[in-house]
């Protein structure tokens, strides 16, 4: 039996990519509310600013392009904004206000760099599609990732395996958030490009005692 999350418990959809990249990074941002920008995040923000124009919709042939589309899913407990949603004329699609034809939506997510070795980008895109599916009562078979470094668009098949990963990750995110849990992690090469390196202090992970132990030690000093 599926239980919907109330709106006050919805988490940012964009956090899925952070979570798969590094669970500690996700917790620092979404649980502890810490953020620090570097050149990579600034470049990504500028790219999204160019794509996100909520007042701009255009039609190219059989495709309607909508930008900065808000989406949400009570089932997943997520909300966010799609950079672009393309609506292509299709008998399997949905009716849009003021349009006679049916259109099948497909999310398009813009990324600053190039395709990654992991599935973090694909999972975030799939979550966007799952939100659209829940909102529009339609099945979306494919989405697209556009990479600024290669200037190419990659089609992503939204498989059952990818959908199961989104559900698993989302449940874990909600569990971390509910417990206010920030995990400890081992330092990797990815730490070099992380904007939160100065906050996370990965080199000190494992060298400092847990906060609970530190507090206990301080309390013991105060006990006569």
Largest sheet: 7 strands, mixed
Supply the number of structural domains: 1
Can you count the helices? 7
Mean pLDDT: 82
Task: Offer a few descriptive terms.
Lambda Exonuclease, Chain A, 224 residues, elongated, single chain, alpha/beta, 7-stranded mixed beta sheet
Model description:
The protein has one domain (7-186): Lambda Exonuclease, Chain A (Alpha-Beta Complex), CATH 3.90.320.10. The protein has seven helices and seven strands, in the order E-H-H-H-E-E-E-E-H-E-E-H-H-H. The protein has helices at residues 15-21, 23-30, 39-51, 120-136, 160-179, 197-200, 211-222; strands at 11-12, 57-60, 63-73, 78-95, 102-111, 142-147, 152-157. Strands 1, 2, 3, 4, 5, 6 and 7 form a seven-stranded mixed β-sheet that branches. Strand 6 (142-147) and strand 7 form a beta hairpin. Helix 1 packs antiparallel against helix 4. Mean pLDDT is 82; it is low at 37-48.
What is the strand and helix layout of this fold?
Blueprint: E1 11-12, H1 15-21, H2 23-30, H3 39-51, E2 57-60, E3 63-73, E4 78-95, E5 102-111, H4 120-136, E6 142-147, E7 152-157, H5 160-179, H6 197-200, H7 211-222
Parallel strand pairs: 1-4, 5-6
Antiparallel strand pairs: 2-3, 3-4, 4-5, 6-7
Helix pairs in contact: 1-2, 1-4, 4-5
């Amino acid at each position: 039996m599926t239980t919907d999350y109330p709106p006050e418990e919805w988490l940012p959809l964009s956090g899925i990519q952070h979570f798969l990249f590094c669970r500690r990074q996700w917790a620092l941002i979404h649980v502890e509310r810490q953020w620090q920008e570097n050149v990579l995040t600034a470049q990504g923000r500028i790219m999204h600013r160019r794509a996100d124009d909520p007042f701009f919709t255009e039609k190219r042939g059989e495709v309607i392009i909508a930008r900065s589309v808000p989406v949400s899913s009570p089932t997943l407990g997520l909300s966010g904004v799609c950079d672009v949603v393309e609506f292509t004329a299709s008998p399997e699609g949905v009716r849009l206000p003021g349009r006679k034809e049916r259109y099948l939506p497909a999310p398009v997510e813009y990324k600053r760099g190039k395709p990654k070795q992991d599935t973090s980008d694909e999972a975030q895109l799939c979550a966007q599609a799952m939100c659209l599916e829940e909102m529009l009562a339609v099945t979306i078979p494919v989405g697209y990732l556009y990479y600024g470094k290669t200037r190419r668009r990659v089609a992503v098949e939204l498989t059952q395996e990818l959908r199961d990963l989104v559900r698993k990750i989302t449940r874990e995110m909600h569990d971390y958030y509910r417990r206010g849990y920030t995990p400890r992690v081992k330092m990797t090469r990815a730490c070099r490009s992380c904007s939160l390196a100065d906050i996370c202090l990965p080199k000190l992970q494992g060298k400092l005692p847990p906060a609970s132990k530190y507090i206990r030690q301080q309390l013991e000093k105060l006990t006569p």
